[in-house]
Amino acid sequence: MKLNWTFYSILAGLTAALATALFLYALDFVTLIHKTHTWLIWMLPVIGLVTGILYLKFGEEAEKGTGLILEEIHDPKNILPIVIAPLVFVCTILTHLAGGSAGREGTAVQLGSSLADQLNKYFKIEKEERKILIIAGAGAAFSAAIGTPIAGAFFGLEVIQIGRLRVFALFECLVASFVSYYTVRFLGIHHTLLPKIHEMPYQAHQLTAIMISGMFFGLAANVFIQFTHIVENVLKNYVKTKWLFAFAGGIALLWMFSFDGAYQFRGLGLVHIQNAFLQTASWTQPFFKTIFTGVTVGSGFKGGEFIPLVYVGSTLGSFLSGVFMVSRPLLTALGFAAVFGAAANTPIACAIMAAELFGWKILPYSLVTCWVAYYLSGHIGIYKNQKLIHSKKDQLLKVFTWPQNVLQKLFK
Question: pLDDT at residue 256 above 90?
Fold first, then answer.
């Protein structure tokens, strides 16, 4: 059985890697085109209209995106429609061609999961075992897109439910994730260069500042999610035709981009994330990135939220480092991981992600910050259909009562 699942996991990792590599190549290409042809931003309403029509004609069910994937993991019924992959691929590329403020990892996760699930058409896999393939594909794509194989494996397991981490498919997820990671490296994919964090002073002031910053990171994640939902609800109330949502969002974005300085919030914004490590960011950067991304993603443009949330976290951490007078690179790196971890309800995966990206010395800090942000972000998240197993309040109470319970058992 393990031999079979090793084979399936390798296939899931390879398909995720090949799809993600092609996607990242295409994304780099259209990003370069947009940089040299900034007038393409005027195409946002048209791209929004095209996106709405494509999903209307070819994949209304696929519109759920990651939500549909989570549905199938919780209650396996039908193989994920293959149309998910080309639709989200093409529409994300179009979003970035026009400069929409969206991400890329959400698209990669949909690619990896939907393609891995297609293996059911060629191999005899039990209905309940399909979830392992879907989870492994999601984690493998996350690993390929970011360059963090261990975090990718844990992301696939942790994202499916809130309040409990089940490691029932850890072996399969690790195999798929590492295969995907080394495949994209072999194909010449270069991930974003980020600095290693070497300054780790364990001082009371530093620890206090980091915990308070974790609270701000959690609140930032909650605001991001709430604002995205507000955009969705406004469109539902005032634009009665669903496939026109992104068109209306594109018009709103054009108006927003007409203001001075707004162009910095186009696309991924990787340069601004890197700059946050070098110089203290302004509070306006995470604030406006939240607004631009909320309108982009909330109105139906494709691309996901990972990079925008990383942008919000990095710039917020950079700004707070000046407020609390602590290491800027350290707090920027912690914000990088914690805001997304809180918004996706994946604190363990994101703490590990920080360690893989910035060096393992940061792990104690990233665990604390990601958990604090996670508890402060509430039970909503960027991924719909996450199953709530234990409330965050109950989890927190268990943390505080754990020493007492252990002592009671010892001296009973």
Answer: yes
